[in-house]
Structures are given as C-alpha cells and as structure tokens.
Description:
Layout: H1 12-44, H2 47-83, H3 87-114, H4 116-122, H5 127-142, H6 144-159, H7 164-187, H8 191-218, H9 230-261, H10 266-302, H11 307-343, H12 349-363, H13 366-382, H14 386-410, H15 414-417, H16 419-435
Helix pairs in contact: 1-2, 1-7, 1-8, 1-10, 1-11, 2-3, 2-5, 2-6, 2-9, 2-10, 3-5, 3-6, 3-9, 4-5, 5-8, 6-8, 7-8, 9-14, 10-11, 10-12, 10-13, 11-12, 11-13, 13-16, 14-16
Amino acid sequence: MSKDEYLITDAPLKALTVFAMPMILGSFFQQIYNMADSIIVGQFVGSSALAAVGACAALTNVFICVALGAGVGAGVLVSRYFGAREYGKMKTIVSTSLISFLLLSIILGVFGFCFSHAMMSGLQTPADILKEAVLYLRVYFVGFPFLFMYNILSTMFTSIGESKIPLGLLIFSSILNIVLDLWMVAGLGLGVFGAALATLIAQGISAVFSLLIFFYRMRRYKSSFVWFDGQELRSMLQIAVPSVLQQSTVSIGMMIVQAVVNPFGTQALAGYAATMRVENVFSLIFVSIGNAVSPYVSQNLGANKTERIKKGYRAALVLDVCFAVLAFLVIETLHTQISSLFLGKDGTALAYQVSGDYMRWIGFFFVFMGIKMATDGVLRGLGIMRPFLIANMVNLAIRLSVALICAPRFGIAFVWLAVPAGWLANFLVSYAALRKSWPTEKSGVISVNSSLPKR
C-alpha cells in the first residue's frame, strides 16, 4: 500500500485526525488571511472603513461558495477514482474541472466587477461607506479567478489525501497578505484599496504556486488521460451543481441577512461584521472536519471498504465535540478582547454590545454545527446530494425567516438567535437521510462505478 492511501488503511480516528488537522490549521490561516484586512483597516483607518470591508463579506462569500461547491463535484470523483487506483480517470477529472472552472471564474469575475455598485446598493449599504465598499469589491473581482482556482486546487489536494501542501501554501499566503496589508494600509495610507490590493497579490501568487505543485504531484501517477471529457464533466456536475446551489444559496441568504443588519447603522454593522469574522474562524474548523470526512468516505467507497465509513463518521463526531468545547471556552473568556481586535479604540458601545452578544450566544451551540458538518460530509462523500441540499435549505429558511420577520420589529439580536436552531434542524434532516443510505457490500455498493452518478 502507498503511503498516500492511509485514509483507507489506518485506524479511522487516527487517519481522520492526521488528515483533518492540517485542514483545520489551514482554515485558521485562511481566516487570518481574511481577517487581516478587517483588523488592519479597523486599527489604522477606522470603524467606517471596517464596516465597508465587512459589508462586502456576505457578497464575496456567495462567489467563494460557488468555487467551493464546484470543487466538491470534482473532489468526490477524484477521491473515488484514487481509492480505486484508476489514475487515468482521476487525471481526466482533474484536467476537465480545471479548464471548465477557470472559464467560469473569469465570467463571474467580469460580472461581479461590472455590477459591484448595483449589488452593494441593492444590499442597502449605508451611504457613507458605499464608495469604499464598491472599490474593495471591484479589486476583489479582478483577482477572483486566482481565488477560484486556488480553492479548486486545494480540494484536489485533499481528495488524494494530501492536506499538508494546502496548509503550507495558506501559511505562506497569509503571512504575505499581512505584510502587504501593513505596508499598503498603514505604511502607504491606501486604506480600503490597499487592503483589497494586498489580498489580490497574495491570492495570485498562492494560486500559481498551487498549480505548479499540483502538476508536479500528478506526475507520480503514471497513466494516460485526456485533457477534456464531456461525459466526465456531466458526471462531475451531477454532484457539483447541488453543492454549488446549496453553498451559494446559503450565502445569498446570509447576504439577505446582511441587508437586514445594514439599516441598523454603521456601528451596528461594524460589531456584526467583527463577530461574523470570529464565527467564520470557528465554523471553518467544523467545515474542515466535514470536508475531511468526504474524501475519507469516497476513498473507502472506491476501495470497497464500506465497513470503515461508519467508524470514520463516529471519529469525526468525537473531533467535533472536542473543538466545540474549545470554542466555547475561548469565546466565553475572551470575547471582549476578540472584539477589540476588530473595533479598535474608536469602536462605540453599540458596536461592542452587538459583537459581544452575538459572539457569546453562538459560543454555546457550535456542537450543533459540528455534528451537522460531519453528517453532511458523509452524504457528500457518498454522492447523496438531494437530502444534503434539502437539509441546508431548511437551515437557511429558519435563519432567514426569523431575521426578516423579527429583527426589524424586535431588534438586531434576532439576526443571530435562530442560528443554532437552523444548525440542529439541518443535522436532523441529514441524519435521517444518512440512516437510510449507509452503504454495505450486501447492498451492492461494491465498486467505484456502481456509486458514480449515472450518465
């Protein structure tokens, strides 16, 4: 057995821990990468500039989630073919997805650049920060193809059981982004434009390095392949499209929630934006565990080791509970200090109150997010996308309905009060589907081809 195949040979808890920890650390650095703009802008420019950057977050997340969802479709098939040692088909999927999604990213980048002002205006962005928010967004979209391709390549690396290379690249790009942020924002005084430009440069360099390293890694698997295969693209899209719909729709929902927050004013928005960044830090820990589960499940399914899938799911739940306790302790003891990182000295009492109330509330309930992400990860790995999509839509519906109906009438707190209920409902729907879908050799799931989408 190759050392690359530890996800189908080592003990499930050990394999998932070894695989997930670099992804968790990578998520941490990804958020440092994302938060650098907010912290440095908040400290050196002011809370209005922080609000301008924060106002773009919900919208940029929509486009990021398109990239992540697209990567899921390719990643599931790459993992499955890798587990079955069908390296020619694996490399065909890689090539087909990179070509297809590069074209898509260019189209989305042009669209986003041209309609930045219209989108931010539609979100009821406060007038005093609209100009800076649009500027930040346009620079972001110039670099969108780099961000898109980096996320696709990260999924490819993890699909073959390699999570350390994406971690190294993230650490490099995070440090580079912080250095450039400090130089352009604090040193050159470029403000929001400097923060956006620093991110673009760091993303571009990281994407190029990722592509070169991945191509070098593929040379290890000697097998003929074709550069583009329409049938493989259709198979990939059968998994990718539901995932894109789920992830982008949820982000659109969060964008609508952003529009609910905006009328409460710049300071409330600054406090909300600060805690959204913190929530993303901890959320991506659980997202990373769920993302680690998917290739684990896919590789074991491809290798016809279906008995290991349940064991891996239980191992993921253990990791989720441990990190949920850690998140609670950190937030409960350090929430004020964390808020001050973003809001700085000129943050008002309202900004600190919004940030603190939101942060302490969600700290109690991260375990719900963890078990939801692990369950969704198993469904993705099995290629069971419809229940996965429905469960996440239920989650979104709960969060949106409470925010839209209650927040304008009873206060901004209702934006976040329904978050844990949405996570729990998502888990219950996903788990009900999973209980009916556990693969066994007796059920006929005995080869990689039997579990792939039908063409």
